Amino acid sequence: MTRIFSSLSTFSLIQLLLISTISEVTADPLHIPVNRRRNSAPRDVHYYAAAADRIRAKYGFPASGSSRKRHGASNSARFGKRASSAGISILTFDDDDASYFATVSIGTPGQSMSVVLDTGSSDLWVTGSSCKNCDGQTPLFDSTKSSSFKSSSSSSSSNNGQTTIQYGSGAVAGTLAQDTVEFDGFTVQGQTFLLADDLTDGLLDGPVSGIMGLAFQSIASTESTPFWQALVNAGDLSIPEMSFWLARESNETGSTTTVDGDTEVPGGVFTLGGSNTSLFSGDIEFLDTQGTPSFWLLNMNSLTVQSQSVSLGSSSQLSAIDTGTTLIGGPSDAVQNFYGSIAGSSTVQGEQGFFSFPCSTSLNTTISFGGTAWPISSADMNLGQVSKGSSDCLGGIFDLSLGSNIPENSGNPSWVVGDVFLKNVYTVFRGTASSSSGTPAVGFAQLSTTAGG
């Protein structure tokens, strides 16, 4: 039986009625409200430039020179070298990219942990009670209070039993463990996860305790089967799908709470085991993923702006569909061609890879991965003024590669497509059991009026 998971008070009456109607006719999907955090810190060009460098690091691109000058050496040196160069998922985690989260239960009895739902990584990690740099607001998992907790290990563990997950400006380190993990009605016993005891200063604050990676096992640092894949392999999902409606600020309704100076607001709905028909209209356009399962990868077919087709250049158009990333990043030539079609656009001085355009200009942008050209709201493409009082605004598409080349057939994406696009569509990730010969797929559908479409 479908059950609505946590934080129901954050949804409007209309949304609850629609979801309750689904519950009566659909026995298997679990519809999980997700929250997002509205950070009180200013989001200026430096904020987004730092976020872009975290995305670059996550996907193996060099950081911008402006970021290295601004931040200097990372404090991740204390974590030492990676345990292994193979199978390491380089994660990104920051206030904006990690704004959509839900609550899982870990242990026996269960301890509630808020985790980011990230289709751009594959590991589950949460902060443990011995965490050295967690602030007082971060909920910590206490393994001594769980009767089902077991220590674990993998080939990625170092001699002292530590596993490290590194990313652009820091790292997460801890010990591998196994315990019962539950999303209300769906449970995996003996799920492997990283119990973090050391992380980069300032990485976490407030209610979020970690990340639940929703990509494929091949990129998992812990070398473990991701939670969603374990459910599919066990036949626990009648439909092997995960679906997202990611709400933008203008869609937010219902109550809000304030934690550590930041505001938590309703952020949309995550459905495990199917889709929520109240949140989209028409058919879902499913597209097979490309290559060996790692990230959720599609080929970008076309990009338009101001009704003009943008030349995507000679680079691969392999695109990672990533709910854990805010922006859209692409290869240098394609991004330059995109802004070259916008009158008055220019590069942002001091911030490599970013472009501005006149704030008075409304951008008409579409992306296609198959036969449908999906529009992106001009509000999502406009990240705000480049500086206070400026008449120029920052664009939501940035230069991911900064001129570096992606080797052909490397399997690495040239594009990373995050929430700037995903807030405009209903997105479905369809998996297959490990024993199946089927191909995973990603689907997009038009948002319903309920979801702001």
Automatic annotation (TrEMBL):
<dbReference type="GO" id="GO:0004190">
    <property type="term" value="F:aspartic-type endopeptidase activity"/>
</dbReference>
<dbReference type="GO" id="GO:0006508">
    <property type="term" value="P:proteolysis"/>
</dbReference>
<comment type="similarity">
    <text>Belongs to the peptidase A1 family.</text>
</comment>
<feature type="domain" description="Peptidase A1">
    <location>
        <begin position="100"/>
        <end position="445"/>
    </location>
</feature>
<keyword id="KW-0064">Aspartyl protease</keyword>
<keyword id="KW-0378">Hydrolase</keyword>
<keyword id="KW-0732">Signal</keyword>
<dbReference type="InterPro" id="IPR001461">
    <property type="entry name" value="Aspartic_peptidase_A1"/>
</dbReference>
<feature type="signal peptide">
    <location>
        <begin position="1"/>
        <end position="27"/>
    </location>
</feature>
<dbReference type="InterPro" id="IPR021109">
    <property type="entry name" value="Peptidase_aspartic_dom_sf"/>
</dbReference>
<keyword id="KW-0645">Protease</keyword>
<dbReference type="Pfam" id="PF00026">
    <property type="entry name" value="Asp"/>
</dbReference>
<feature type="active site">
    <location>
        <position position="118"/>
    </location>
</feature>
<feature type="active site">
    <location>
        <position position="322"/>
    </location>
</feature>
<dbReference type="InterPro" id="IPR034164">
    <property type="entry name" value="Pepsin-like_dom"/>
</dbReference>
<dbReference type="InterPro" id="IPR033121">
    <property type="entry name" value="PEPTIDASE_A1"/>
</dbReference>
<dbReference type="InterPro" id="IPR001969">
    <property type="entry name" value="Aspartic_peptidase_AS"/>
</dbReference>
<protein>
    <submittedName>
        <fullName>Aspartic peptidase domain-containing protein</fullName>
    </submittedName>
</protein>
